[in-house]
Design brief:
The radius of gyration is 16 Å and the shape is globular. The chain starts with a strand and ends with a helix. It is built from nine helices and eight strands. The strands form two sheets. It has a four-stranded parallel sheet with strand order 2-1-3-4, with helices on both faces. A four-stranded parallel sheet has the order 6-5-7-8, sandwiched between helices. Strand 5, helix 6 and strand 6 form a beta-alpha-beta unit. By secondary structure, the protein is an alpha/beta fold.
């Protein structure tokens, strides 16, 4: 069974995004996608810990399927996925950790921007964790992009990312903006702000690819 990187998604829209990044930067890396939209729905309703058993089961399924590492692309349940590494026997990563580390390195005033309220807390906590790890003093603010998620759910991807980009362009008093959800990454190309704007898919996949290599 060939070594592969498993990706845990809570939306099927992420599958072609990560396939394209693999084709561009990590040719030869095998990706296996596991999609469960219900995980995000339940995590939003009951809290991320409520889906810990399901996430753990998905991780075990991915490992049984040949994964040498697992990458969770959903920021809301990222911490739960990392916790599942304890019994997995392979690295289990969250896609937004490399982005959070880069944000801490970029400046002391970080704005976490998301279209889902359930994503703001976990991502802000991750940035603060990376700041402690780096020994840096960082102030983290969160910003919810009102009405953007409704556009995503309606299939209006262009309207969704344009709303997110407009919100990023309106940010002041910051050094760096973190696009907390992988689905908001396309907004990075649309922003005109002079601030650094970071997204998670590219650095997250790079970290996953590195984990596969180190565990092969």
């Amino acid at each position: 069974m060939p070594a592969s990187l498993a990706l845990l998604h809570t939306s099927p829209v992420h599958v072609p995004v990560f396939d394209a990044l693999r084709d561009e930067h990590h040719q030869g890396l095998e990706l296996r996608h596991f999609v469960d939209e219900g995980l995000l729905e339940r995590a939003r309703r009951d809290g991320p810990e409520a889906v810990a058993p399901e996430v753990g089961a998905l991780v075990q399924r991915a490992v049984a399927d040949g994964a040498r590492a697992v990458l969770c692309t959903c920021s809301t349940i990222g911490a739960v996925a990392e916790a599942a590494a304890a019994g997995a026997g392979v690295p289990v990563l969250r896609v937004d950790r490399p982005m959070a580390a880069a944000a801490v390195a970029a400046g002391s005033r970080v704005v976490v921007l998301a279209a889902l309220r359930s994503t703001l807390g976990p991502t802000a906590a991750l940035v603060e964790e990376e700041a402690r790890r780096a020994g840096r003093d960082v102030t983290v603010r969160t910003l919810l992009v009102e009405d953007a998620w409704a556009r995503f759910e309606a299939g209006d991807d262009e309207g969704y990312v344009r709303r997110v980009a407009a919100a990023a362009d309106a940010v002041t008093g910051a050094d760096v903006i973190v696009l907390a959800q992988a689905s908001t990454a396309p907004a990075q190309r649309l922003t005109t702000t002079a601030l650094a704007v970071l997204s998670s898919p590219r650095p997250g996949l790079a970290a996953g690819a590195a984990a596969v290599c180190s565990n092969s």
